[in-house]
Amino acid sequence: MNKHITNTFLIVFSTFLGAACGDSEDDNANDPALIAEGKETFRHDTFGDESFWTDTLKMHEVIASAVDPTTALSVGLKVDAEALPPGILGTVDLKSPATTVALLKLNAVVGLRGTVVSEGGIDRLARVGVTCALCHSTVDDSVMPGIGKRLDGWANVDLNPGAIIALSPAVTAEQKAVYGSWGKGKYDPRYNADGINGPVIIPPAYGLRDSPHVTYTGDGDIRYWNTYVAVTQMGGQGEFGDERLGMERMLSAGTPDMVHSKLDGLRAYQFSLTAPVPPVGSFDTTAAERGKAVFAQSCASCHRGSARTQEQLHAPADTGVDATYANRSASKRYRTTPLRGLWQHPPYFHDGSAATLPAVVDHYDRVLTLGLSAAQKADLVEFLKSI
Q1: Which of 129, 60, 72, 124 is nearest to 98 (CA)?
Q2: Do 51 and 121 form a contact (C-beta atoms < 8 A)?
Q3: What is the b/e burial string over 74-111, where b = at least 16 CB atoms within 10 angstroms of the residue's CB?
Q4: Which of 46, 86, 127, 377 is deepest in the core (most CB within 10 A)?
Q5: Residue 266 pLDDT exceeds 50
Q6: How many CB atoms lie under 10 A from the CB of residue 341?
Q7: 227-264 per-position pLDDT tens digit
């Protein structure tokens, strides 16, 4: 997860996988069997990354000795209530790491996969890995905060990946300081490549079908990004390369590719995930209708169509946002953010620099000199809350 330990990844680099445009529609992304396969991949497949999280980071030892369920929930990990036997939460010690191991044995911790072995009647966590769901799923809190039914595709805005990684004995004090600076809901998917510390907001993975760009900087299509994350961030066994990022093709003999055969199914499942509907009563419907007209006049030239985005990428100066993250990317630009489920995942902008939707509106009113009145701004916010 940082450039000093990147070489410990089981990574095999290959050629650049996709153009920086959206995926074509003439494919089998609607195949129910493929979607079901992708759902299994999204929720449960580690792509063989246990070698990184276990052999390098020693996270199995950290979890078994120091991560009880209460601690796990405090750093944003979620528990799938549907994987739990009825009534179990009332009988276990939520302050014991052994309970976390038991939850992993049930495959109930969203985004974590553990291999638990029994030795002398005692369960031991032998290996642990992560899946796509760690960052891009949450739960509905129907049992208690952090425990409920899965909500796939929702950004886990409570997750603190940096705090989790910093628990590893394999990272230095300097690295721990970097990870500790990220905070909940943020992650830097380029830190291990360029050594620059600049985390971005974990984005939702729903509503991607109609968007030509699935990431902040639009470096490639959804297969490209899924491969980038699986191989270079999760530590999975696969192939990735992009000369634009200085990642040259490298081969490692004898290492199986556990990523590429899963890409079509993963894409199909992600495309099947629609944006969540705003909760009833969460916005003023009359004001939102007025705000829709404001949006059409002031915002729709870029936020177009059903996805409210466009294929064109923008220089950071075009929209007055910080250029640091774009400059670390292949495109050096930012996409027009698809507007879907905005109520679900504050803060906003790639770096979270706008804490609220009113702050977003104020930013664009100032930078683009829209000249909106206070009433128009308020109506526009209600419309954005309704999306």
Answers
A1: 124
A2: no
A3: ebbbbbbbeebeeeebeeeeeeebebbbbbbbeebbbb
A4: 46
A5: yes
A6: 19
A7: 999 999 999 999 999 999 988 655 445 678 999 999 99
- The strand pairing partners of 148, in sequence order, are 80
Q: Which CATH architecture has domain 285-386?
A: Orthogonal Bundle (1.10)
Place of tokens 């250029």: 323
Which residue, 128, 136, 157, 116, is CA-closest to 41?
Answer: 136
Q: Which two tokens stand for residue 231?
A: 């191989």
Q: Which two tokens stand for residue 172?
A: 């230095």
Domain boundaries, the chain: 6-272, 285-386
pLDDT of residue 247: 82
What's the rounded mean pLDDT across residues 197-212? 95
**CA-to-CA distance for 84 and 88, rounded, in angstroms?**
7
Q: Give 296-314 pLDDT, tens digit per residue.
A: 999 999 999 989 999 999 9
Residue type, 176: K
Q: What's the CA gap between 127 and 117, in Å, rounded?
A: 9
